[in-house]
Amino acid sequence: MTPITEPVQHAAERVTDAWSALPSWLPVPGLGALPVNSFLLKGTEPMLVDTGLGALAGPLVDSLRAEIDPEDLRWIWLSHTDADHIGNLDRILQIAPNATVVTNFLGAGKMGMLGVGDPARLRLLAPGEVFEVGGRRMHQVRPPYYDAPETMGFFDETDRVFFAADAFGALLPGSVDRIDEIPAGELADGLVAWSSVDAPWLAQMDRGALGRILRALDALGPAHVLSGHLPVAQRLDTLTGIVGRAYGRGTTEAVTPETAAQVEAILA
Ligand SMILES: [Fe+2]
What is the pLDDT of residue 252? Predict the structure, then answer.
């Protein structure tokens, strides 16, 4: 793994004939490096999934142009409206005049408050609606953990691709090109560290409920797992196993039941 001191865009990576990853890495001082990924679906209706870091606008656009003509881009699926996912939204809307943003009611409202995007270029998905794009059926999937309530993951029936948004992200010691370059222990530590930062309520979640969600996802049996914050993975069960073991114990070294500790401190 390569330690990084500034944001860096890596070369696009083929996932399937239709799907590519556009990976970048963000240094997190004191904690390591966080992958920040966009993804691209090619075909008759090309779709970009998330728009990366504003600090990497030029390199991300170059990566996109190397894959397709931005004028052909038809859709931009936003997982949620955090800065690391909409960092180049306005820039890409400018160079992709035929693209429409796919989000939901809450996502649209938050974009309005942030003053990003274009209200005339929105396709709002209803809860549970199956989105058909280029002959594919994209099923909305709520990830097991997330940090913004508008978060929309999906499952692409055709290529059995599961997009998990922020879930299954990992804080790592440095950047890599492929997930198999990450030692197993570093992957497990990174998954727990990231989830405890991004979704600290996991430590307070009912263990049975979390286990049921993780087992339900395993039953999807995706061939490819796309997380906004992890190199492309093939084995979802490895990731759910690590998360399930970490939080199944109720607490981990990285996570404390914060509310209980706060109340104890107040009453002490
Ligand atoms: Fe994120």
Answer: 47
